[in-house]
Amino acid sequence: MRFSLLFLAFLGLSSTLQAQSPAPFGAVPSARQLQWHKLKYYAFVHFNMNTFTNEEWGHGTETPDMFNPTQLDCRQWARVAKAAGMEGIIITAKHHDGFCLWPSKYTEHSVKNSKWHNGKGDVLKDLSAACKEYGLKFGVYLSPWDRNHPAYGTPEYNDVFKNTLKEVLTQYGDVYEVWFDGANGEGPNGKKQVYDWPGFVATVRQYQPNAVIFSDAGPDIRWVGNEDGYAGETNWSTLNRDKVYPAYPNYWELTLGHEDGTHWVPTEVNCSIRPGWYYHASEDNKVKSLEHLVDIYYSSLGRNGNWLLNLPVDRRGLVHENDEKRLMELKAYTDKASHNLAGGKTVTSNSVFSKASTYAASNVLDGNRDTYWAAAKEAKQATLDIDLGKSTTLNRLLIEEYIALGQRVKKFSVSAWQNGQYQAIATGTTIGNRRILRFPTVTTSKLRISIDEAKASPLIGNIEVYNAPELIVTPVIKRSKEGLVTIACPRTTDPVITYTTDGTEPTAKSPRFSQPFALPSGGTVKARAFVDNMKRASSPATADFDISSAKWTVVSTGGQSPGKNADRLLDGNSDTFWQQRKSTEAPTSVVVDLGETLPVHGLTYLPRQDGKKEGIVYRYAVSVSQDGKNWSAPVSQGAFSNINNNPVNQTIRFDKPASARYLKFDILETTVATDATVSIAELGVLTR
Ligand code: FUL
């Protein structure tokens, strides 16, 4: 009797307690996801066989001896990552060519058969130790696609892959993230593999239960749908996970997530600091500018994602000096841009859950992510007023939901107290784990954050405000078909642009750009924008040009005389493109008359830059001719690796230069084989 009375009292108490704390809404994160959400920014390292073969996708036919770094130093990687403010490193332990960076028992394509350290080397051992030493997390990328393994394409391969995983997950200490590449191509026997995803996931859970698993479809974290570094401004951490699978065709849905999705599967934004994922010496001058990286910073970790920034380690086995320099500039910038001006200030709200102090507005400024402000039960709108105590200049706001109980906010806005009233300065849609809004600099003493629409009563864990230095946009260098170079600095008032054409860094004293200049035979143009009486400068922009297309004409496309849009593939304008139906029988050929005989060392192909994939060329062949009638055997043929996900300018270098007046570019296959069309933004020629 006494027991049941006690029990009833307990029940009564717990339901009152429940009524006094906000209930979860929709899909919520797991404990391992919550751990991962505490991170922001960490390194991807693409370093493997491709580093030595200059490829993006290796063929699996390499000899293990080709892997031979001369000064491999994983401690250098860790030192650079740590100094850059990164929290971990994810290494390409095994890419599509199948080469394993550790001595695997399950393949011959591995460091164990290379001359490097007489087959006794182990990159995973070195890197995991370096990460430990520098206090970084250690993660692994593994591609199930394997172009080398003899069993690939048979059920036996799934066991091989699971055994491989077990080696990686049991020999190197804690692994915080396992990154599964969804690519699924043919193996050495021409067959594709039917992957045992449930088995792969179970293997990770068995050996590293705390690791989060990444793939296009999670289960723990999802791809963001592009390799450019941009999450959606609206970005739900929820996903209808059972509808999505690796290589999901409607990949663009991954950028926004699914509102009301059944599972919590947040985004990780992966992009490279250079155009390619692997190191190519030709990209040493193409490290993304500080301005570009800052934009990605706000568009990835500032839009409810974590940022995975790739560093292509070079053939020495080191992070290249140019990449390191840029990373340190980024760190210096973000340090300056995230000094919190709201910490410890006062904040009030028009709505508090149960009017309880546990959920008071002050929780958003206390620097503690585990305490939060909750609006009244059922409230879908509420405001938070921050009193900054004095006139404060600011241009960024960071806001975080208390996501342990789900993602709720659909729309919010920020206003600043000016001339006796609140005036709107910025709006946003979703918040999620972390949202940073950028807006023009204002000076104010009070801010109002309004949650304008929420799916359930809003819960906010943290708010910070900053005054970030405004960066000067890097100039954009373009050359017209006629060979005239123009340099512009968009969104900048009255910049002075200086430039060089001898490869040196432009300074305030270099020639000023005032009108287009001719550069028909090509060269390197570097430019910089200056403002404030030449006191502040952008980082330099570099453009490498070969011979211009002034004398070129398109002779035919797909066997027909070319329509007027064919000019677009030679117009020097990367924003326009030519597109045409595929020929009924492959290939669809594009024939170009160079107007003179040139020593042709290779060709460049820029795929359409509008984000769409239709018609992007995958397999190609190139032939040359002196008269446009008699064609050589192909001087080059191959495939553009990873062009679908990363549509950057592609370079084909011929084995030996060909003297040519006419060029024929045969499009043998597009990235989506069922596409009805082919498309080209620009074709170019390498004459050196
Ligand atoms: C893609 C791969 O095909 C690329 O080579 C690269 O590894 C990128 C991160 O993922 O799916």
TrEMBL record:
Keywords: Glycosidase, Hydrolase, Signal
Presence of keyword rRNA processing: no
Gene3D superfamilies: Galactose-binding domain-like, Glycosidases
Domain F5/8 type C, chain residue ranges per copy: 334-468, 537-685
TM helices/strands, residue ranges: none
SMART domains: Alpha_L_fucos
Record carries keyword Hydrolase: yes
Family: Belongs to the glycosyl hydrolase 29 family.
Function: Alpha-L-fucosidase is responsible for hydrolyzing the alpha-1,6-linked fucose joined to the reducing-end N-acetylglucosamine of the carbohydrate moieties of glycoproteins.
Protein name as catalogued: alpha-L-fucosidase
UniProt organism field: Fibrella forsythiae
